[in-house]
Amino acid sequence: MKITLIYDNTVCLSGLTPDWGFACLVEAFGRTILFDTGAKGDLLFANMDVLGISPGSIDTVFISHNHLDHTGGLEAFMAIQPAVTVIVPEGCQVNGSARDIVTVKKSLQLADGLFSTGALDDFEQALVIRERTRTAVVVGCSHPGVGRILDAAADFGTVDTLIGGLHAFDDFQRLEPLDLVCPTHCTQKIEEIKTRFPEKYREGGAGRVIIL
Q1: R_g of the chain, CA atoms, integer Å
Q2: Among 93, 188, 201, 204, which is most exposed with the fewest C-beta within 10 angstroms?
């Protein structure tokens, strides 16, 4: 399981451009999934180019929720990769063409080892990856609450890894059972998470690669 941050408020690799938004690449089970698309298509493609990621290698786009800082690059991406499958939560409108658009309401298995929590609060879904002994959750902004997302993800395995935007999350005891936490994008209490859990904390930023 390999997760590469492409689009984030900060960068950890020279040549990449930071911006308010989020996107990452998930590689697992022979699938290559673009999780969210950031706010701007041109910046998404520029960062992908620096990271050596070809749009043509991506078979699936997974959209967490219908906010521009997560969907802004979607139409541009579909324009150059129309064969891609796009997975969106209920209520998310997709402009552009794609081979297959899957609208998710309830939790479901997307493929071997890949799951959606379902559209929590009819708004935001998270991606769950269960590979061997590891279960990782990738989140966009965690609007429904980190605890609720972790509870939903637990239906598919014992979660040990959390990556993505956590907004104003401060129920820090929910992080104690985890092995790795990489807070990104909109997370307001990154420094407190880093201080409380130095052994679990992994710094985010575009260019960060996490291999589990």
Answers
A1: 15
A2: 93
Provide the mean pLDDT of the chain. Answer: 96
Q: Say if residue 207's pLDDT is above 80.
A: yes
Q: Tokens standing for 72?
A: 């802004």
Q: Does residue 133 surpass a pLDDT of 90?
A: no
What is the per-residue pLDDT across 144-155, written as a single tens digit (0 to 9) for each? 999 999 999 999
Pairing state between β 31-35 and 60-62: parallel
pLDDT of residue 182: 98
Spatial separation of the C-alpha atoms in residues 188 and 108, rounded to whole Å: 30
Is the backbone of residue 201 left (phi > 0), alpha (psi -120 to 50) or beta?
Answer: beta
What are the φ/ψ torsions at residue 111 (nearest 5 degrees)?
-170, 180
Sequence-ordered alpha helix ranges (H) in the chain:
41-50, 68-71, 74-80, 146-153, 190-196
